[in-house]
Structure formats: structure tokens, C-alpha cells
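Standup notes, protein team

Yesterday: finished cleaning the Staphylococcus shinii set.
Today: MFS transporter structure.
Blockers: none.

Input for MFS transporter:
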Amino acid sequence: MKFSRLVLPGIAMIATTYGLGRFSFGLFLPEVSTDLSLTASQAGMISSLFYLAYCFTIIYSTLKTDKIGPKRMIIFAGLSVLIGLILIGISSNAIILSIGVIFAGASTGLVSPPYGYTISLWIKLQDQGKANTWINSGTSLGLMFTGITAMFVFLDWRDTYLIYAFIALLVLTWNYLIIPSLQRDIKIDTGSLNIRDISASKRIVIASTLLGVSTAPFWTFSKSFVQLTGHYSDIALSIFWILIGLFGVFGGISGAIIDKKSLHFAFNIGVIALACASILLAFTPNIWLLPFISSSIFGLSYIFLTGVLLVWGIKLFVKNASLGIGIPFLLLAVGQVIGSSFAGIFIDILNYKYTFLIYGIIGLIPLLIYPKVEITKSKMPEGDYSKLQQTNADILNSEHSIEIESPTQTEYNN
């Protein structure tokens, strides 16, 4: 199949599910909270439903994509985000809003594995890494798009979400028409999991969870905090959000850093940068430029660090790449459920400044849980080592891309 014919609708679907459906909520949360009379605690609990829904659906889609086919799973994801956006747009109370959030969040889990499966089936092997990278860029493009639409002062948040729903319908139709149906059963060989693998994953489990906890408030409450200062226009607030997506595009340099330095080095600078983004944001009322510096650092370091977690996971689970991807990003989402829930409570009890300081400090704790991976040629058969080399080469410039035994399965974003 022609490269652009499959990749372009893939970019659009990732942008719709992750950008419009999931991460746009933090951008419009101040207006949503005002209209629906939500406290910070309630807003945090509702926001956590995005990540909770993702946790369940990413497991489901990973297990079922090869059984029902990637096209059906992608269509399920498109329908889920469409329903979610409509419900959010028409919500008149917290219950309807919560249901919409669940559907929108679920779409991101449903859409993650099928695209890698699709690429492996219908894109030439030498072009698969490039295809994964392009589709993976959809989240950053979606974030930039939501920031731009927020500048349209003649639209309120309900109108905007209904427009997003219309876009989701177009993207769903596009994918339905373009993606081929699976004509035969193809099984994924993910290898076997042993006790040694589980023991080796303790560090990445703890680190991923802590990073999820520490980043959740930024996605949910950062714009609310900046807006509350009263020092920024609507355009400035939109630029604040656009910068997250814009600098996220450059997060793919993590692969090059790992190659030139080491996994441990890349992990450390990513953790420090991500924590600094929250700490800097805490001092927003003092220096006008800080929010824009903070959002730029956050966008860059978040995508950078998820790439590091990906490589770490793959090196741990050499013969089970799917598990190597699934563990860190599932636990990242679990951490975000916890972090988002408690952030609202902390804001109500303390304030935004101290909440972001607390979470920034939590974000530094993973420095103590450094990646400890030893993979050598002598520890595995030659064929497996060659496969690992090919795998790492394909994913180093992509946030969540990985090739495993035919067909490939890829995770996009988190």
C-alpha cells in the first residue's frame, strides 16, 4: 500500500484520540469547572477517568487486536472518541461529563496497538520505522490544534467539543475507507515470560508509576493555574498549550541521546527536566515568562522520557517486546490516575503553587531508580540478538514504536 495513503489517516486518528479527545481536557478545564460548578477535587477525579479508561482498554486491545483485526479495533477507537466528544460537548452535569471522559479516554487505549499491527501488514519493512514515527507525531499535532482552536473567543468549550466530534466523524470515516480488512489469521509470537523477567522489571514499574504520578497535575491543572493568576490573555494561554505540542515534536531525540551517551544518562536528564517543568510552573505568579518556559520543557521532556522508558522496557524484555512496551506505559497511566485524583485534593487543601512543588519533588524520586540493564551478545542466541538490534534501530526515533515478530505491534503515545 502507498505510504501516505495509510499514514495520513493514522496521524489524523492519533491526533483526534490523544490530542482532541484526551489531552484537550486540561485546556478547557477552567471553563468546564466554572460552568458545571466543579471543585478542584471533583475535576481531578473526573480527569483521572481518562487514564483509568486507558488502562483497561490498552490491555483489551493488546489481547484482542490479532483476533478481531486491526481495522475493527481502530474503528472501535474512532467510535469511542466520537461518543466521548459528543457527551462532553452536551454535558450539563458531572455525571454526563464523566461518561464522556471515559469514552474519550478509552479510545486512546483502543487505538494504540492496532496501528503498529496495520503498518506491519501493509507497509514495506524498510518504511515501517518512518511510518511509526509519522503516525506517532499525531499527539503533538493534536495538542497544537486544540491550542489554536482555543484562541477562537466566539466558541465556548461546548461548541469546540462538538466541532471536535465532527472532525472525529470525518477521521473515522477516512480510516474506515482506507484501512484494509484482515483477510487471514496472523498470530503474534511474543515469546514467554519468566520469573527473571518479572524480577528485572521492578525498577521500571516503580519509575513509570512515579513519573505518571508526577506528570498528571500538569496535564490537568497547569492551564487552570496560569489562568488563575489573571496575568495572561486568552491568546497567551493558548500559546502556553501550543508550546507543549510544538516542543513535544522534538522529544524524539531521546534515541540519539541513548546512542551517544547511555540509557542511564538519558533517563536522568529526562527526569530532571520533567520535574523542573512542574517546579518552574509553581513560581508562575512571580515571573511572567515562566509558564511558557515550563510548558516547552514539559512537552519536550515528556515525549523524550517516554521514549527512554520504551527503550528500557525493550531491553528488559528482549523476547517479549509487546510486554516491554506495555508495562511502562500501563504503569505510567496508573500513576496518572493516582496523581490526578490527589492533585485536586491538594489544590483544595493547599493551593496550586505548593501542589506543583510537591509533584515536582516527587518527579525527582525516579533518579534513585536508575535503569539497570545488561544485554550482551553472549547471553542470547545470535538470531535473537540480531532481532534486538533491528528492533532498537526502528524505535529509537519514535516515542512508542517497536517491531516484534510478525506482525509488528506498536504503541503510540501515552
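Follow-up from PR in the comments: The chain has one domain: 3-181+193-395.
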